[in-house]
Amino acid sequence: MMLIPTHHFRDIERKPEYLQPEKCVPLPHPSPVGTMWFIRDGCGIACAVVTWFLVLYAEFVVLFVMLIPSRDYVYSIINGIMFNLLAFLALASHCRAMLTDPGAVPKGNATKEFIESLQLKPGQVVYKCPKCCSIKPDRAHHCSVCKRCIRKMDHHCPWVNNCVGENNQKYFVLFTMYIALISLHALIMVGFHFLHCFEEDWTTYGPIREETAEARISLHEKKQPLKVSSTECSSFSPPTTVILLILLCFEGLLFLIFTSVMFGTQVHSICTDETGIERLKRKHQPREHTGSWKSVKETFGGDFSLNWFNPFSGPRHPKPLSDSDWVRQVASLSDTENTETTEEQSEQRKDEDSVEVIDE
Fold it and tell me: End-to-end distance of the chain based on CA atoms, in angstroms?
């Protein structure tokens, strides 16, 4: 349970009529565990499609512009396997982050019967979300896009068309990590491609290229068999190749910076056990943190192993919510920073035996 300063209260009601049970109707058939989760948001779907398109564009340029035309088969095979493996893991992580329930709170459970079953004691409160009519456990926040309250919600990411929460934060971290790695790998290959091909092959593009092609192939095969062939740098014309590579450089640099920053912020949130929303709401008030290593193991699913980097291995399964998880303890008035006694605080002192429901 969580201690809540009373000066943070708003819209406190103590009458049973406030529960409005006729407006809070639980879903008739709760979704079974393992059901695919998908948010029907036009902007999110468009961003997810753009993400896949950009990854596939990078795949096209790397394979058909740089690797396949190369006559150095060892160079092509090694880099092709590495890039395709990272791209596969990135897209798999994206799918898992997008199609995994981030930790949605049961919708419509703020009924009079359910709250009465909690048997609240004096000084205990429950938080009700008026938007999705759910009882909010500690560290849950409402997402206006998903239209649900999400446990340990960090933020809503349109690029994965989903919230980043308790159950899918691992997949989002892996997605940002693998995108950063393939972006860096692509930038390095583009750099080598320009160094090997620009001066030696593209400067001779024109009528003289056809006359000297065979002689240059023989010369390079004899002298530098392990170097990327300069006469077969691309199956496209040099202007087209340059345009494709420049676009890939721009994409790789942009995604490398963006995903590296996101990866760093997510790792920091996991180690400090504080989500982005909690960090913004906390402001200057200190918050008690759990051990950083414990938070990391809970997010990635146990002790350190290769499964940490596997998007098909889930995080540690969270414990089912018990009755105590729905209830929060009110802090005493003397512990608050504000010394002024508000009208709501005065009513709280007079009516300690009643049920308190906070509309958050």
Answer: 17
